[in-house]
Amino acid sequence: MRLPLRFFIGIFALTLIPDVGWAHAFLEHAEPAVGSRINISPTEVRIWFTERLEPVLSRIQVFDAANSEVDKRNVHIDGSNPALLEVALSPLPPGKYRVVWRVVSVDTHVTTGDFTFILAP
Fold first, then answer.
1. How does pLDDT run across 43-100, given as a tens digit for each residue?
2. Lower Cβ count inside 10 Å, N or C end of the chain?
3. In CATH, what number is assigned to the domain containing residue 58?
4. What CA–CA distance (Å, rounded) separates 55 from 25?
5. Count of the separate structural domains present in the chain
6. Within 10 Å of residue 62's Cβ, how many Cβ atoms?
7. How far apart are CA 36 and CA 18, in angstroms?
8. Residue range of the domain that includes 67
9. Longest dimension (CA), the chain
10. What pairing do the DSSP bridges indicate for beta strands 37-38 and 110-119?
11. Could you report the per-residue pLDDT of 1-55, keeping only the tens digit for each?
């Protein structure tokens, strides 16, 4: 069986396409951990993603049980890791907290998500 020349040209053309624009930035892990129960108030929330992020277009917000934002609104990308997004926190009282994130990876794909953690008394 002979394959047409078009088949081989198509396969060759696919190998020339650069490896960009195909992935999204998904949450890899976080501190505090997703769904965790912790005993000490964290000083920040840190989320690692699977892709590099666009700093101006990415954010984290942290809300308490009354849906009040409790972060310091100083979201930034870590200087040594372009896939790490951070926001500082003031000391938190015990309770359940919800972390909401929206990021844009360098390939311009938007991903969003949220998770909770509990600060035990």
1. 999 999 999 999 999 999 999 999 999 999 999 999 999 999 999 999 999 999 999 9
2. N
3. 2.60.40.1220
4. 13
5. 1
6. 23
7. 39
8. 22-119
9. 72
10. parallel
11. 565 656 545 555 444 444 444 568 999 999 999 999 999 999 999 999 999 999 9
